[in-house]
Amino acid sequence: MLREVSSRITRLNSITNAVKNSWKKQSVRLISTKSQFKYLDDCAFPPENGFEQNSLYGRTLKIPHTTLDQYVWENFGQWANKTAVVCGATGRNYTYGKLRDHCAALAIRLQQKCKLGFGDTLAVCLPNVPEFPAITLGAIEAGLIVTTINPIYTAEEISKQLIDSDTKILFGTASNYPVLKEATNLAQRKIPIVCVRTSSDDALPDGAIDFIELSNPSGVHFSNLQHHNRDPEDVVFLPYSSGTTGLPKGVELTHTNIVANSEMLQVKAGQSALLLPTTDTFQDVLPCVLPFFHIYGLTVTMVSKLLLGTKLVTLPSFRPDTFIDALTTHKGTVLHVVPPIVIFMSNHDMVKPQHLKSIRNIFSGAAPMGALDAERLIAKAPDVVFAQGYGLTETSPVVLIGPLGSNNHSSVGSPPPRTQAKIVALNDPTNTALGPNETGELLVRGPQVMKGYHNNKQATDDIFAEGGWLRTGDIAHYDDNFQFYITDRLKELIKVKGFQVAPAELEEILRDHPEVEDAAVVGQAHPISGEVPRAFIVRRKNSIVSENDLKQYVAEKVAVYKKLEGGVTFLETIPKNASGKILRRQLREKYCS
User: Which one has a higher pLDDT value, 139 or 21?
Assistant: First the structure.
């Protein structure tokens, strides 16, 4: 009798485990494990002319030499039943097991139904929604390149990126379909548009493909997935950046770039690691207010956190009510933010100390922030551990990480392992490294540095110095403790709430106006946005075009953060040097101080 009961219990446990793990039989199994990965050569760039790597985090780090899809899914079975991503506005969500299956199903249909080949480009023009990681990782598993587009871009802005990136298929929201369709028409290309319906009220637009049709695992035979032949050194992401100057350019980021940066982000910095391990009883929760289409959100808050089993709470845009709700309802534990959000949390009456009660670590980046702003936040939430960091789209993005728990809140930290940084004197053709407390341009190099600019050899040659050093265009120095400080910038970019605005892009639009003879745009300091664009205009003879006319003209052609919120000033001439380059510093010093 006892033997029979024992046998029944054994069979029952077996059935229970089979049901519990049924997703394993449906999912595509990745054969690689971390112990089986090949690793990137440990020989980093050697010291030059006595220069040593200025890192407080050690010099060595094992970096898997594999593709991003293999890397991200390596451990997901440990937390398959935990939430991977949930919409902070609607509650729509995916577990890790469900997300894994949707990605594989999408990859198969992109290959078979959409006839996309390895190395083709897929564009994602979405706000932060739970489907964003599903689309991105599904595309990568299909062997595609992903280019990310700001969903508030105008059709004209989107069309330029579609053309330059040679996009073959475009993903966006149903509500934004008219803009996306206009963009494909302007690009004069027949690009299929796949729509995500973010609410039950959204109808599928005529001519659009339903995202659910492509991603639903039902009826999919995962054995049909054609395993891609992409190399770790191949491009995987193609975000657009203006670099140190000029118009937006495609930044070629490889699988190795993103894997390397994700590994660097796991290094213990200061008092502790940013994240705690995911277990049966614990999961870090990260409210995702930084947009995934930006490299900060893409690598730092999405890819590197899915790798570790973190729960992501997506927020389509920054709204005080939904942001606070994500902190309290979902009990956020880690935040990646930009300075304007830190200022909001520290100064706004809506944010009470109890709203920050569950937050353990806050990491700020995308633009430098003053120590006083950080200290005001810590005064409101004394248990929060704060740090800053620094990076660029061209570096995947992180190249400097501040130690958690440090009292030095003005520093952006020091290089993570396998990363080198140095300060060189301006206009020094030898790029000889300066010592502590000497100011110059910051140069960096490491395995997270981009392959180059897409279809733009000249811009690539301009940004790289001899020895593989990337010129950041930022003025900086480091102290005796190897902590770096960003103090100014050589590059002409305007940073609006952490977003890049290229003056050349706005100048090109303004010069196209029939009553504008010449134009220059610089950044005007702003208490909330950090900077906003300000235009200087030379009118054509007999023109009566007004400031409001030009502001409206630009507003119709660009995303909201590129509007001329700094105003328009009319001049007789635009100051330029002998070679015709606009002397923006003169304009800033005379009119914007």
Answer: 139
Residue 193's CATH number: 3.40.50.12780
Q: Which of 83, 93, 84, 77 is nearest to 23 (CA)?
A: 77
Domain check: are 308 and 332 in the same one?
yes
Tens of pLDDT, residues 400-410: 998 887 888 88
Q: Is 142 within 8 Å of 171 (Cβ atoms)?
A: no
Do 468 and 556 lie in one domain? The reply is no
120, HSE (Cβ side, Cα atoms, 13 Å) = 18
- How large is the average pLDDT for residues 149-174? 97
Q: Over the stretch 36-76, which tens digit does the pLDDT of each residue have?
A: 677 877 655 655 654 554 556 666 788 999 999 999 999 99
Please count the other Cβ atoms lying within 10 Å of the Cβ belonging to residue 39.
Answer: 12
Show the domain range for 582.
494-591
Question: Do 450 and 324 fall within a single domain?
Answer: yes
Angstrom distance (rounded) from CA 182 to CA 158: 9
Whether 405 and 279 map to the same domain: the answer is: yes
Q: Residue 26 region, left (φ>0) first, then alpha (ψ -120 to 50), else beta?
A: alpha
Contact 411, 484 (CB under 8 A): yes
Instruction: Annotate 12-74 with three-state secondary structure.
Output: HHHHHHHHHCHHHHHCCCCCCCHHHCCECCCCCCCCCCCCCCCCCCCCCCCCECCCHHHHHCC
pLDDT cut 70: percent of the chain above it: 89
pLDDT for the residue 312: 98
State pLDDT tens for residues 335-351.
999 887 888 888 788 88
Residues 379 and 524 in one domain: no
3-class state of residue 9 by DSSP: helix
Q: Check: CB of residue 271 under 8 Å from CB of residue 405.
A: yes
- Residue 123 maps to a domain: yes
Task: Evaluate whether 533 touches 564 at the Cβ level (below 8 Å).
Answer: yes
On whether residue 33 sits in a domain, the answer given is: no
Cα angle 54, 60, 65 (rounded to 5 degrees) comes to 125
Looking at the structure, tell me whether residues 471 and 533 fall in a common domain.
no
Contact 568, 591 (CB under 8 A): no
For 273-311, how does the pLDDT look when each residue is reduced to its tens digit (9 = 90+)? 789 999 999 999 999 999 999 999 999 999 999 999 999
Domain for residue 120, yes or no?
Answer: yes
Check whether residue 507 and residue 477 sit in a common domain.
no
Q: What is the pTM (predicted TM-score) of this model?
A: 0.83
Q: Which pLDDT does position 403 carry in this prediction? A: 83
Looking at residue 583, which CATH number applies to its domain? 3.30.300.30
Task: Show which of 461, 485, 509 is a domain's final residue.
Answer: 485
Contact criterion met (CB below 8 Å) for 170 and 182:
no
Is pLDDT of 427 > 90?
no
How many angstroms separate the CA atoms of 173 and 186, rounded? 19
Question: Does 27 map to a domain?
Answer: no
Which range (2-11, 129-138, 432-441, 498-507) has the least confidence? 2-11
Last residue within a domain, chosen from 485, 502, 526: 485
Pair (460, 519) in one structural domain: no
